[in-house]
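Side project, low priority. Logging it here so it doesn't get lost.
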Amino acid sequence: MQLFSNYNQRPWMLLGMLATMLIAPSCNPVKIDPVQDPNFASIDSVLNQPSAIQVNALATGLEAAFRLGHANNGAYNQITGSFGREIIILASNEPRWYTEILGTRGPLNNNSFYSVASYNGFARTIRAANILRQSVQTAQSSVISDAQKQSVYGFADTYEALAKLHMLNLMGENGIRTDVTDFLKPGKFTTGSAPALTNIRQLLDQGATELGKATSFPFTLSTGYSGFDTPSTFLQFNRALAARVALYQKDYAGTLTAVKASFYAPSSSLTVGPKITFNPSGANDQGNPYFQAVGATPSTLTIVPDNFVAEAEKGDLRLSKVANVPAIRSNGGITGNWVPTIYTNQTKPLDIIRNEELILISAEAKANTGDLPGAVDDINVIRTKSGGLSTYAGTVDQPSLINEIVRQRRYSLFYEGQFWVDLRRLSKLNPTPTPQITLPYSTSPFQLFDRMAIPQAEIAWDQANP
C-alpha cells in the first residue's frame, strides 16, 4: 500500500532573456530555481498551515479516492459479485473474468487487474485520510477552529475505517495492514480478519467521539451526503458503519447499540443514506461504472446467473433489478440469460449504506440476541416494503430467521458488494446448496474463493523490509 506524491522540478529557460540574466548581478546563469508543477502539488504544501481552500480540496479528494475502488477496471462490486456468483462478467476481451475468478485455472493470481484495482483504490483512500488529518493538525485557528478540527478528524477516521473495511472484505482471512500512518514504514498484515475488524471499529468509535465535539465542517461534502453533511448527522452515518462492523464481529449487543444511534428508521424510506455520486457530463468526473444498458453487449458484459430469478419468491418486486435477455453471450461454458438493471443510468448513485441494510442488520442482531419477535418485525418491513411480499410465515426460531435474513439480504442488497461477504461470514460459502440458495459454477471445473490473494507488490515490500 505504497503511495507517493509527485514532485516535478521543471527548469524554465527563456532564451530571449538570456542576455538580461547574464548581466543581472543577482542572477546565476548556471543555477536555475526549481518551479513547482501546479498539476502535481507536493504533499508538503498542504501539511504546513494549509488554507481553507486546501482543506476543502483534501476533503473532496478523500471522497473521490474512495470512489476509485469502484471506478476502475476490476471494480469492487464486480469483483465481490463474481466471487459470490451474484453476477458473472462474460468479457469478450478478458477471459480471466470467467476463468481465473471462477476458479478454472487454479489459485488466484496476485498480480492481475482484479487483485490490485479495488485494493489500490481503497489504499489511496487510507493515505488521503491520513494526509487530511495531518494537514489539519497544523492549520491556524483563524482558518479552522478547534471544534472544526475535531469534525475533520472524525470525518477522516470514518473514511479510513470505511476504506479498511472494504479492503478487508476483499482480503478476508489474509488480513490487511492496519498500521499505515507512516506509509514508508507500514505495519505487517494482521493475522486474520479479527484484529483488522477491531482496528476498524476503534477508528469508528474514535471518529464518533470527535464528531460529537464538533458543530460544523470546514468543507463542503458532495450531494451524496445530503442529510448527512453536518457533524451530528454524519455521526449517524458513522454509527451505521459501526453497526455493520459489530455485526461482522458477532457483537450483537454492540450492533443494536450502534443501530439505535444511526439513522435506522423502519417507518421511513428504505433508500435514505449517504451515496457515491456520478456526473459524466462534469469536468474530470465520470458516470456510474456499473451501468449497462439492457440488451447492450459491451466487451465487459455483466450477466446474472439464472438461479437468482429461479430461487426468488413469486411476485418479489426486487426482480426488477434484472432483465431477461436470452443467450445474450456465451463464454467458457457459461450462457447469460439475465442482466442487471439496478444501476439504471450513468448518474445513478451508489449507496454506501442505507436504511434498508440497517433494518436487516437490526433483524440479524435481534435474532442472535433472542428477540425473535423484533427480528420478525424487521424482516417484515423488508418483505413488504422492498419485496412487495406477504409477511413472514415460516418457523420462528434462530436458524430459520437467519436463513430468511440472508435471503432478504440477497435480494435487497443485490450487486452491492455484500452477498459474498455474507456467505463467508455465516459459513455458507460452499458448493453445497443452503436453504433457498445455490451457488452456480462452484463445482469442478469451477471453484469458490473466500479471499483475494495478497497483492504481489505487498509481498515484495515485506520481503524488502523484513
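Brief comment: Residues 51-220 form one domain.
Revisit when time allows.
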